[in-house]
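re: ur question from yesterday

yeah so i grabbed the chain u mentioned. its 408 aa long if i counted rite. heres the sequnce exactly as i have it in my notes:
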Amino acid sequence: MAKGQIGLWLVGAKGGVATTVMTGLAAMARGLVEPIGLVTATPPFAPLDLVGCDQIVVGGHDIRPGRLVTEAARMWTASRAIPPDLLAATAADLDVIEGRLRPGTVLAAGDSIRNLADPAVVATAETPRQAVDRIRDDIREFTATTAVDRVIVVNLASTEPPWTGTIPATAAELATALAAPACGDGPLPASSLYALAAFEAGCGYINFTPSTGASPDALEQIARDRSLPHAGCDGKTGETLLKSVLAPMFAARGLDVMSWVGHNIFGNLDGRVLDDPDNKAAKVKSKDHLLAALLPKPPQTLVSIEYIESLGDWKTAWDHIHFRGFLGTPMAMQFTWQGCDSILAAPLVIDLVRLVDRAWQTGEAGRLSWLASFFKSPLGCDEQSFTKQFALLEAWVNRQTGRSSRDR
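ran it thru and got these structure tokens back, copy pasting raw so excuse formatting
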């Protein structure tokens, strides 16, 4: 099924996750590392003949100044995550990618994100329609100059504040709103401007952030009208992944979860942005909503996110689960999850690109609900149990390969 090369266009290309994706792809293509952490590298996915890591060509948008190799090096200097020898071995690859990067947009992205941007990006005077046109043309240029067969755009940018404006309900209404003279931030947040530009450029789209992205119905309609697939939102890499595994266990055993408290601390750029209460609100909502769907009755919950600069990309989550058992006896479970955020996220991004590409080649369009196991707030799927979500992915693989569950 794999055919030719595909393009991977990263929004937020100089961030920790994006540079880890780039370094990982280059390292795997050179045979320097094993594909640990890639779901698609496990045996059940081998019959799909997915696009190889050496067939993925990377470009992207970013709003910040600075060089890619410098940002990738921070994964070692600030977080002790990517070894210097691996950074040195892939530096030339990052230099090539840097030539394909273009300035992003800060329209309707919020003050915290705007404050991170290169002054030249902030000073760019354009309407939302002009921003979409520019982003779309950047992606088209990348497609033409690299001669890739297909392009998938992945949003890895910092989390936006929750969007409080009214988004047009249909594609026609959205087109009219974008054509109108600019008034304030316009009809869409920045993440949705990127999603619209991706669809207009004929690309698939993945939203790995809690931001709005392609979730509005108008953008779903555009994706379907153009026969383009998309998935999201908010990659599920750590604490929420454990919640989606553990909560069904409590429910299955008839244990009454009375409260669930999660305290998260980390020090990367995303943590710095989430230190803003407006931006934090979107992330907290994405992390907190699933327990009500997984337990017989909603427990009291608290999710906190705090920026601790010294931790770098290492995220620590401490959870306290207070539950009641037989005879009403109260008990507790606690766990601590410590992981390097970008190291956990990067393989999932690569997995998603490979799977969305396969789905696209077989004619799937719109929201890919069977990718729910990768996201905190999956589009087109209300199921929150990781086991049941992963079963949806396995069922899709079986459909693609013509296997039944008995054949496994």
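noticed a couple things. The chain has two domains: 6-235+343-400, 239-339. also The first strand starts at residue 6 and ends at 11.
anyway ttyl
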